[in-house]
Amino acid sequence: MPCLLAIQHLDREGPGLFAEAAAARGWQLRVSRPDRGDPLPDPGVGDVLLVLGGPMGVAQIGDPAYPWLAAEVDLLRHVLERRHPVVGLCLGAQLLVHAAGGLVEPLCAGEPPVPIREVGWGAVSFTVAPEQEPLLRGLDPSEVMLHWHGDRVRLPASAQLLGSTLLCPEQVFRLGPRAYGLQCHVEVLPGDLERWLLEDADYVEAALGPGAAQRIRHDASLWGERSRRQGRLLIDNLLDLLAPGGEGQR
Q1: Which of 115, 117, 142, 200 could be stapled to 125 by a disulfide with Cβ–Cβ 3.0 to 4.6 Å?
Q2: In whole numbers, what is the pLDDT of the chain averaged over residues?
C-alpha cells in the first residue's frame, strides 16, 4: 500500500487536503515532526515524500534552533538522486530547490529592490496550457491560490517552471519527473486559515498593514471554496503522477 510520508514543521501547517486525498486513495499517512525530535522518514518503494511549510527558511540552516533543517536537505538530495517521488510546499519547495542546487533569497520588489511578503489570495498563472500538462489537468489557465511567504527561489537550469504570480515568478515547478515544488498553499483547510490569521497576526499585518486579516477573511469568502476545490484537483493530479505506475514514475 502506498504511503504519504509528511514532514511537518509546526502545529498549524499540517498536510490538510493532502491527507484527505491520501485517505480517499486508501493510502497510509505518516507524519514526522523533526521539530519535536522525530526521526526523518526513510521513503521506500511506493511511498511519496511530502515536505510541508513553516516560518523558518533556508537562511536558518545551521541555526541551533533548527538542527533538523540540514538533515532535511540531505534527505532531499538523496531523494532527488534516487528519483524518488517528492513534493515540497512553501518552505518544503524552497528546501527542495536548495537541495537541487538552486537559490533561495528574500522576495523583493521595486527599484531599488526592497523585501516584501506575498500574503493572501492571488492568481497563479500557468506557463503551459493545463490540457498539455498532467499536473494541471482540469484547471483553468489561471487559478487563485493562498500565499504566505517572504522568500523566493531561483530554479536550477534543469527545472521546469509551471506557474507564476505577479509578485513571485516561481510558484509551481518540476525538478525532474518525480519532484514538484509549490510555493503557494494548495493544502489549506478552512480552519487552518483562521488559525494562521490568529497565530501569525504580526506577520500578516507587517505584510499588508492594519486590517489585513479581515481583508483576507473577506477574500476567502470570495475565493476560498474554489481555491480548495482546485487545490484538491491539483493534489489529486500530483498523487496520480507520483503513485506507483503513474506517469511521473515512468
Answers
A1: 142
A2: 97
CATH number, domain with residue 227? 3.40.50.880
C-alpha cell at 214: 479581515
3-state SS class at 245: coil
C-alpha–C-alpha distance, residues 69 and 57, integer Å:
9
* Per-residue pLDDT reduced to its tens digit, 181-234: 999 999 999 899 999 999 999 999 999 999 999 999 999 999 999 999 999 999
Strands (E), 77-168: 86-89, 103-106, 108-109, 114-115, 118-126, 142-149, 151-154, 160-164
- The amino acid occupying position 147 is H
CA 86 to chain centre: 11
* C-alpha closest to that of 134 among 2, 5, 236: 236
Residue carrying C-alpha cell 500538462: 133
**What's the total number of domains in the chain?**
1
- What is d(CA 2, CA 43) in angstroms, rounded to the nearest whole number? 10
3-state DSSP percent of the chain in helix, strand and coil, to 5: 40, 25, 40
Adjacency order of strands within the sheet including 3-7: 28-32, 3-7, 48-51, 86-89, 179-182, 172-174, 160-164, 118-126, 142-149
pTM listed for this prediction:
0.97
- Upstream peptide bond of 112 is cis (omega within 30 degrees of 0): yes
Backbone angles phi, psi at 90, to 5 degrees: 55, -110
Helices and strands, counts by H and E, the chain:
6, 13
Range of the domain at 54: 3-249
CA–CA distance, 51 with 227 (Å, rounded to integer): 21
